[in-house]
Amino acid sequence: MVGPVIDEAAYRRILEYIEIGKKEATLAYQAKEVPPRGYFIPPTIFTDVKPNMRIAREEIFGPVLSVIKARDLDEAITIANSTDYALTGGFFSRSPANIERVKAQLEAGNVYINRSCTGAIVGRHPFGGFKMSGSGTKAGGEDYLLHFLVPRVVTENTSRLGLVPEKTPEYREEFLWPKPQR
Description:
Helices cover 22% and strands 13% of the residues. It is α/β, with parallel strands linked by helices.
């Protein structure tokens, strides 16, 4: 059972992607039963997906899976990193060398190794993507609240012509430019 998507606009957008997928790839599976009310999308799986297809390159926030075959880990990393989106990546392996390689090379805001790719726990797994899937502070991270501040910088050119500094103990007329007229 998969919960509903957030609203009618999301519901319609995901159904459009499913129709695109039916034209681009092979529909391998689609659940038959979904609740009659609400914005429920049937879990859908496409195979024979190529990396340049829309269902492989665009971000779909719904239960739609595009299966892309790769010759080896090099090609898999290249395919994954070639998309404009990078919210989450998942990798399953028993090879410590491959795990370390994916940790270092996979471009995703959250990389999950040998575990489910969903279900970040607040306070334990800061969550957020990069590329077109988001940027900035991750939700749940130690700097998350700073994300809601408005950063502000004020700069002033203090060497402009006509500056008259206050007469402080460090004030010395010989440092003024232009030289004061007497």
